[in-house]
Structures are given as C-alpha cells and as structure tokens.
Write a structure and sequence with these properties.
339 residues; alpha+beta; Heat Shock Protein 90; Phosphatase 2c, domain 1; 2 domains; five-stranded antiparallel β-sheet; 7 helices; 15 strands; 27% helix; globular
Length: 339
C-alpha cells in the first residue's frame, strides 16, 4: 500500500472549510481507484462526498467525516459517515426530499446523496446533531440488504492510528463479533489490536469463550489487549458473551431497558486470565451495544427517540459522537436482532 492509500480502518477528517471538503473528495477518488470502481460510480462517489462535506461546512457544528472501504462476498465499496453535533433536523426524511431547505439553500443535497447511494441511512435531532451513513458499491442497487452489525473506531486526539478495533464473522451459522482495545495508544496498541482481529478471523469455529482463549494464545507477542467476543442468536433468544478487561457491553430490550454484560479482569496475550462465558436473553427486537473504555458508559438509547430503529452503524456513530472521549481511543459496535 502506498503512502496515499486509504487504509481499511479508514481516515477521519475534520470538515470545517471548503478546503477540507476538497481534501475529502480527492481521498474518496483515491479509494475508488484502489477498489477499481468504474468511472460512473467514482463520479457518483464524488457527488456524495461533495454534498456530505458541503452540508458539514454550511450547516453543522463540529463536523467530522469517516471515509473507509467496505467489503462483502468478494466485492468492495466505499463508505462515508458524516457526524456533527448540531443544529440537527427535526425531520430528516423531509430534508432528504429535493427542494427542502432549512437554510435558504436549494435543498437538493440529501436528495442527491440518496439517489447516488447504494445504501443510505441517517438520524437527526434538533439541537443534538446529525449522523449520515452512505455506501457506494459497484452496483448502485447493491446495498439494499439490511445490515445486522455496524461499528466504527476513532483515535484519540493527536494520534494517527487507533488502538481500538472490531470485527465480525459468520462461520457455520454462528454470528460472532469482537471489540478489542490494545493497551495504551499509538502504533503498538494498534498492532496488538490488529493481531487480535487477524486471529479472530482465522479462529476455529467455537463458542465465544473458546475464541477468546484462542485470541489470548495468539497475542503473546503483543503488548496485549482488553477484548470481548459475543455471539447473538435471536432465533434461540440467546446471546453468548465472553470478555476480558474493560470492554463494556449491554443488551437493550424492546422496552428500552439496558442489561449490562460481565467481562472478567485480565489482559488477552498476558498473564493467565480466567476465561468464562455467560448467556443472556436476546430476542429478535433486541440490540447489543459493545464499546471500549474510550466511550463513557452513561449513554441511554432511550434518550434518542427513533434511534433504535435505525441501522446498527448509525446507532454506533451516534453513541460515539455523544459518549466518546477525545482523551482516548474509542470504539462502538452495535448488533441488531433479526428473525
């Protein structure tokens, strides 16, 4: 990978001026070239990048954007996630229609984004801000499958890489997710997390506790990490969970009630931690939220009317925006139930 390539973890941009908007557009076009998107879809991507960044510059407070590749079934696309802290929109659906404006503009921005996107989702509240997530796949109609999981991580202020990470896999019918927090910050913490993610993807089929034990054995050459593996099975009404260290996790039921999950003390890759697995109720309408200690554990989805019905990625981005701290790497992963 050359120095200008966009890494799989993506690049975060603070978008406060037109110059930042042009930087995002050029990076998006580089990523399109990396992924061999054709000229037509690259042009669509440039429109989406321009509209998202224009909205952040003109209308948003504390606007940031994450650009990253997304992959599935041997195919690659581009994902952009725009996040801001205000002023927000009372009706995002109405604002996505051509001709609607909240600031005397033509009001075509969100409509243009929705038309070019393979997949598009968002959430906004007046005075709280907006999250918009867009995917551009080689096929414009290729993003309609409803995602069961979404996640994002962000480095602490001043660092170029994050020591927090996540992954998911489906093996022999098991849906499993991982959240990992490499000890400390910077490149060595990132290397520990990379080792965990690689070991997770290659791990033999097994229960969450078996996978955690495998990760522990695979990370002895690193500085170690806190991590947790979860296996949701809504058809059985169960979630299996095994964690080490300060990874927080909670199941949110249809009634909005939050139930915390147990992670044991320990460091994967070091010492000889005790690895145990716990079972929790997890129905088809439940949500699982997992995050590193870079996210303050005082969020409540009930404070965001309608958010629980949005995609897992939009839920994760909203929690990261409002509960993440700039003094630490931060990572949020969300799983929705399914029938």
């Amino acid at each position: 990978m050359n120095d200008d390539a966009v890494p799989d973890r993506g690049i975060w941009f603070r978008v406060e001026s037109g110059s930042a908007a042009s930087t995002v557009r050029r990076a998006a076009e580089r990523l399109a070239a990396q992924l061999d998107l054709d000229a037509a879809r690259t042009a669509d991507l440039a429109i989406v990048a321009a509209e998202l960044t224009s909205n952040l510059v003109k209308h948003a407070d504390d606007g940031v954007l994450l650009l990253r590749p997304v992959r599935r079934d041997g195919e690659a696309g581009v994902e952009l996630i725009a996040i801001d802290a205000g002023p927000g929109m009372a009706d995002l659906t109405a604002s996505s229609q051509d001709g609607h404006s909240t600031a005397g503009t033509l009001g075509i921005g969100l409509g243009a984004i929705a038309r070019q996107a393979s997949w598009f989702d968002g959430y906004s509240r007046a005075e709280r801000g907006t999250v918009l997530a867009v995917q551009i796949w080689p096929n414009r109609d290729g993003g309609h499958e409803r995602p069961w999981v979404g996640a994002l991580s962000r480095p602490l202020a001043g660092e170029s890489v994050s020591g927090d990470g996540y992954a998911w896999r489906v093996v022999e019918g098991r849906h499993q997710v991982l959240v990992c927090d490499g000890l400390g910050h910077g490149p060595l913490a990132s290397a520990a997390t990379d080792a965990a993610l690689d070991a997770f993807r290659r791990a033999p089929v097994g229960t969450p506790s078996a996978v955690v034990a495998h990760l522990h054995r695979s990370m002895s050459h690193t500085r170690g990490a806190a991590l947790a593996v979860a296996e949701p099975d809504p058809s059985a009404g169960t979630l299996r969970y095994s964690g080490l260290g300060n990874i927080s996790a909670a199941v949110i039921g249809a009634d909005g009630r939050r139930r915390g999950l147990v992670s044991l003390p320990g460091i994967a890759g070091h010492q000889r931690p005790s690895v145990r697995e716990y079972d929790y109720p997890f129905e088809a309408d439940a949500r699982l939220v997992m995050h590193s200690d870079g996210v303050v554990d005082r969020w409540q989805l009930a404070d965001y009317p309608g958010l629980v019905d949005r995609s897992p990625l939009v839920v994760a981005a909203t929690v990261l925006r409002d509960a993440g701290t700039r003094r630490d790497d931060a990572c949020v992963l969300v799983v929705r139930g399914w029938s």
